[in-house]
Structure formats: C-alpha cells, structure tokens
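Per-residue structure
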Amino acid sequence: YRWPETTVPVILGVLLPSVAIALVGFVDDIRPLHATLRLGVQIGVALVMVAVLGPIGSVRLPGLGDIDFGQAAWPLSIVWVVGMINAWNFMDGSDGMAATGAVVVAVFFASAGFLVSSPVLLLGASFVGAAAAGFLVFNWPPARVFMGDVGSAWLGAMLAGLALVPGAERGPEVFGALLMAMWPYVFDPLLTVV
C-alpha cells in the first residue's frame, strides 16, 4: 500500500493545527482567554495551514467564472481559515447548529472528494462528519451537552483546512463548490459583523 502524497501535508497542515486550535479552545472554555491571544493563535494556525497546504490561488463561481486572487491569495487564505474558525464558533450559540452544519458540509466535502478521486478529502470529511453526527445526538435541542470553543473552533479549522488540501484535485471549481457548501457559515458571520 502506498500512502497518498497528501498524507504528510494533511497531518502537518490540517490535523496538528486543528488540534492546536482545539487545545486553545479547551483552555478558553475553562478559563476565558483574552480575545487578542485567541486571535493571535488563530492567525498563527492559519499561517501554518497556508504555508504547508498552499494558498487559494483562484476560485470558480457560478455566473462569475474564474476569479484569480494573484497577490491577495495569501492574505485571503489566512482570512479564510481564521474566518471559518470563528464562524463555527459563532454558530455554536444555538443547540445543534454547529454540529448539524458540520454534518451537512462534511457530506458535501466527502461527495466532492469522491467525485474528484481525493481520498484525503473523502476520508477527512467523513471522519469530521461522523464525529459531528455522534456529538449531535447529545447536542440536539434541548442540548444535554455543549460543544464549546474546543469543538466548534476545531470543526471550523478542520473544514477550512480540508478545503485547502493540495494536489490536482484542488482546482478553482472544486474550491468554489466547497465554498458554496460553506456559504451559510461565510454569509451569516459576515452579515453579523457588518
């Protein structure tokens, strides 16, 4: 058996940074950390993810065609990761919302991974979706257990990182489809901030 070429980048660029975010979230759930410290860690994690996996160079959106980010690829990729970490954290305020969204997005990601023959995207998204579905049993309204920052920030980091997975499968049309799957988690926090 030969491991996919993306195995090491996914471990270094998705799994380990997501665990770092979960650890910070765990500490924050027990003893609230200053927002500046959390943001600094999130930016550091995003830098690691983008350095290992590469930035989002372009995206293909329906009706708009290919949008090439050029020099803005790095900053936009960092904003993508930090934004998704915080978006999932924002959505965790309602019972079952973050876990349900993660299951839906993970099913879409896994389907995309199957269609483009990406075992990393297929399996990674399947594991994230299964974890969220298992948690959802206890988090369904009325929730008996809450996700907290440890879970919600981890979900955001994992899904943001999986969308950056390198290789030929990450064409502009694939990232565009993944972006559309996560659109509610892009639009709602953005609207809230505006």
